[in-house]
Amino acid sequence: MKLSARNRLPGTVKQIETGMVTAEVVIALDGGGEITSVITKKAVKDLGLTTGKKVYAVVKSTEVMVAVD
Amino acid sequence: MKLSARNRLPGTVKQIETGMVTAEVVIALDGGGEITSVITKKAVKDLGLTTGKKVYAVVKSTEVMVAVD
Amino acid sequence: MKLSARNRLPGTVKQIETGMVTAEVVIALDGGGEITSVITKKAVKDLGLTTGKKVYAVVKSTEVMVAVD
Amino acid sequence: MKLSARNRLPGTVKQIETGMVTAEVVIALDGGGEITSVITKKAVKDLGLTTGKKVYAVVKSTEVMVAVD
Amino acid sequence: MKLSARNRLPGTVKQIETGMVTAEVVIALDGGGEITSVITKKAVKDLGLTTGKKVYAVVKSTEVMVAVD
Amino acid sequence: MKLSARNRLPGTVKQIETGMVTAEVVIALDGGGEITSVITKKAVKDLGLTTGKKVYAVVKSTEVMVAVD
To answer: In the CATH hierarchy, which fold is given to the domain comprising A7-62?
Structure first.
């Protein structure tokens, strides 16, 4: 499957915190730094996410803001 | 100003393509790879964005998806 | 690639209207009805989208609202 | 009330899973297939959502991605 | 139609800037201040938006960030 | 830090409801009315949000819909 979303950053699952509906997945990016994702608990299970798994953080371009110091 | 959005990746503006309402800003991330942002033309002007400027890509955690190969 | 986004509706591209930065893609859903997507012009080109092409409309669950009459 | 969001798919509530803040609502679409929505627990209560209720899944066009096989 | 989106701020259309696909609508809020919305050009036409028209800015709660000074 | 997001409404935290992953923050806007935000529990802690604290509700323009009666 090829997706229109422009942004796909490779990394490794560092931590998963699971709630009743959603889960927070912290991804250590291959390029350094971290990215936090909030997805459904069902998606975590469906993708078989566990600490150490290689994943991509995927973001639609219209969801990315820009900041300057 | 401190923001609730968990994700703030440092980089440099690589390219700006400006439309009538929106603009596409491509950011070369310090850690490697690129991230594309679509923001308003007004925001580009307001932040004084130009090629080579140091910026951050900022994303709310609920907008980040996870993918596996 | 397997994605955390829960929603993937099959359909056919009915119409593409291209701006300078973004493009509007109207998808006729296989189950009836239409869905409109706004993505970057670059994504339209990158996916090779043309009228009649089989595609999926993909939506993250946190982006779906519910309405009642 | 008439809304700018372009996408409104009719369906029936199939399942509701309620957390402490958010709730996951699975909607069986009239045209076939399902769509999952994550909204606040308060919205579920406010709209009186229950299994079997006729609803619409509503999505802003800028939140819809496109994928190809 | 009753919507799950928790936020509905009343105001008046102050300015509309129309591109090829999207349009920027600036709303002067009844409570003071402004809010800017980017929607499709088709939605502007469909809702009959013009300067001076009474409208609501509608935002899903998961799209609202919090900032502190 | 200066952000591309066009919308920043000043207010005061009225209520915080905390789940396992996310939290719902209700902000009483200075101009009247309320706005509800769903952010991560970690962001609530990181920003030191408590009832009565002066904050801003921040929203990216592409996330704002328009409605008419």
So the answer is: OB fold (Dihydrolipoamide Acetyltransferase, E2P) (2.40.50)
